[in-house]
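PROTEIN SPECIFICATION:
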Amino acid sequence: MSEQRIRVLIAKAGLDGHDRGAKVISQALRDAGMEVIYTGLRQTPEQIVETAIQEDVQVVGLSSLSGAHMQLFPPVVQLLREQDAADVMVIGGGVIPTDDIPYLKEAGISEIFTPGTSTEDIVKYIKERV
């Protein structure tokens, strides 16, 4: 009997055009046995949620290096709730100031991973919670 693989959507929200980190995380999650869907650049919260629902993912990983995380991450959580998909765990990563993290967590982001976080820690976090 095969174990069901964790399905993760990695998304680049907003006008952020830097995706190296998202691609590194995507590969690390694949290497850990997860099924990863990568949205590509410049996705709206609505597009991210639509893809998450269509792909039946358990986790949405949001990446932001543009400074727009406060405007882009919370709407993803809210839209998932509105679509009866509140059970989808949303995590975030990128260049996010420490002072912004409490607000993002209060808005429903499960965890924020900042530069220097090991991919092993991200894999462990997801596996322990899904």
